[in-house]
Structure formats: C-alpha cells, structure tokens
Amino acid sequence: MFTVKRMNIPKRTIELVALLAISTTLFLFLHTRDLSSKLKEMEVKMQPEDLVSANQIISGDSAPSQGVRSMMKILQSTGEMTSLRPQQLNNTRKAQQEIIFFNRVPKVGSQTFMELLRRLSERNQFGFYQDRVQRVETIRLAPDDQVRLAALVSSYDAPAAYIKHVCFTNFSEFGLPEPIYVNIVRDPVERVISWYYYVRAPWYYVERKMAFPDIPLPDPKWLKKDFETCVLSGDRECKYLEGETREGIGDHRRQSMFFCGHEQECTPFNTEGALQRAKMAVEQHYAVVGVLEDLNKTLTVLEHYIPKFFQGAPNVYWDEISKYNTINRNTFKPHVNEEVKDIVRKNFTREIEFYQFCKQRLHKQFYALKLPEKP
C-alpha cells in the first residue's frame, strides 16, 4: 500500500496564486474592453442631445424620459421656457469660496469626471486634490469628522477642487464658507447593477489586494453570482426594502444618500423624508448636478455655469479623455433582462423620482442658456 503525503501550502502562497489567476483573467479581456470603450464613445457622440430644440424634445425625437417631456410641455405652455435665466438657476453665485467640492457618487462615471477635473486644473490653473484610497470608505460622517472635512477643504488655496466619496456636507453649518458643490447622477437601477458587478470584477480585487495585501479574497461562489439570479431568488443582497437601513461602509444601493446628508433620517432606504432632504440640498446648494445619460448637456452646463473651472470641458472630454481612457469601464458586466430591471424599479420609486428631479433641473439649466442650434 502506498501512502500519500499532503503538502502544506502556505496560505500566503494560495492567495498569490489566486491573485495571479484573477490578473490573468483580466489580461485576457483587455482587448474586449478596449473595443467596448470605442463602441460606447461612438454611441454617445452620435447622439448630440445637447443642442436639440425644445420642440424636438416634446415630439420625442431625442427620446428623453416621460418626466422631462412633461416638464418641457408645462414650461412651454406657461411661457416659462422663454423666461428662464441662467443666473436664476445657478448656485455658483452663492459660493463663498472658489473651491469645487465634488462629493462623488460611485458608479456614475465619477472616475472619468475626476480625470476631467484633473486635466482642466492644468488648463485653467486651479489646484486639484482628492481623498486617498481607504481600506474602509465611510460616506456618512460624525459631526466632528464633518467639521474636519470642511476645514480641510477650506484650507486649500483658491481656486481649487476637492474630490471625495462622501455625503453632502453643509459647510455653513460649521461657520465655514460655502464651496461650489457639483456632482453626477445616473439611472438608479443601471447604477446599482453597475455597482453589483464592479465589486465582483477581477481588476477590482487586483487593485484592492495591491493597496491592502492583507485583505482576504472573496468567496468564489459570491463572485460568480449573477444579478438576475440574485434578484429572482430573493437573495438578501438584492432585496431593496423600503425603510431598511444598512450601515457600515455606506449604503451604495442609492445615490440620493450622497445628497441627503449625514443625518440619521437619510439612512432608511427609499423613504419620502430622505428624498425631500436630497432634493432640497440640490436646489439650495448644488451649482450643477450632471447626468451621465445626458453627458453633452452636462458638459455644456458645467462650462457655462462654472466657467472658471470648466472652460473647455467638452473639448477636453471628447478630444482627450473619451478617446484614450477606459477608466473603470467594466466589460465583465453581462446583460440584464428588462423584466429583472422592472422588478428592481418597483422598489426604487423615490430613487427614480430623485434622478428625474436632477435630470429636469439640468435640462432647465441648459435651455436657459438659449444656445444657437448647430446647423
């Protein structure tokens, strides 16, 4: 009889082998990722929604959401379309210091937007600062931490821009000058799907492991779980229950929390109170809240409403960033059926309402500019 001796492989070696396997998978998909990026660029550039007329929007030629069409019909019928003025819709004038505070929402193209700001800082001569990568990222801060954050941002020499994943922080509550608040939003269901696959992407764990070597690798079963199965099986991770609170590193299921603030009332999921607080913060404090799906309008509004920082933003984006950068574009994300998305949408009613609110506001800001149409 032969005896087989089991070799004891150090745990560290196993982790390195697993990390190597993930890296190899990432390498194999690089070409697919590049192709996807080019196709996406062509798709967006072929839809220059930033210079369509109000009549085109109302007729549905540009296929905007029903909420935006309804708003434009009301504005046109009351004559408000012609009375819109940029200065009435621009909170930049309320800022007490020339510092951009970009409390970026995850998975709304914020990495690309951050790169845009970095390049514009060189072109338009302003300081560029961002929060360091953290092992555990807390977005809802205690009052003392909010004071420290506001003091840090206010300490930079103006003009400057500061970027961090964090909830809306009201500087004036701490006796500090108000900055220029900006942010980006995205269709809430598409965003939550993007987040689901982002935290499962091989390159995500390569980056995390390189930054924090002692972080354990996730369970392979969890990595392989697809979003459709997660929703249809009633998995705890994909249940979006009204009033539910998830603390810890932050509630990344929704983007309204990044506008609502740090208060306890902002933590329950999909509630009326949190929705109204988020809307109020946008209306009273934010100069521009861009929309990922309306990228051309977003860049145009930023350039005209905050010119000191965003002069030349459309050209820099289309000529430099979109052509050569594929920041955080996850080609590992599979197609999700509309039926599954509809199931999720039923529990995202107030998140969708907040998204539509931000989108309507952006459209009003754009049409107030009364830019000439392209020939």
UniProtKB/TrEMBL annotation:
GO terms for molecular function: sulfotransferase activity. It is a single-pass type II membrane protein. InterPro entries: Heparan_SO4_2-O-STrfase (IPR007734), P-loop_NTPase (IPR027417), Sulfotransferase (IPR005331). It holds the Pfam family Sulfotransfer_2. Its main location: Golgi. It is found in: Golgi apparatus membrane. Signal peptide: none annotated. Belongs to the sulfotransferase 3 family. This is Heparan sulfate 2-O-sulfotransferase pipe. It comes from Aquatica leii.
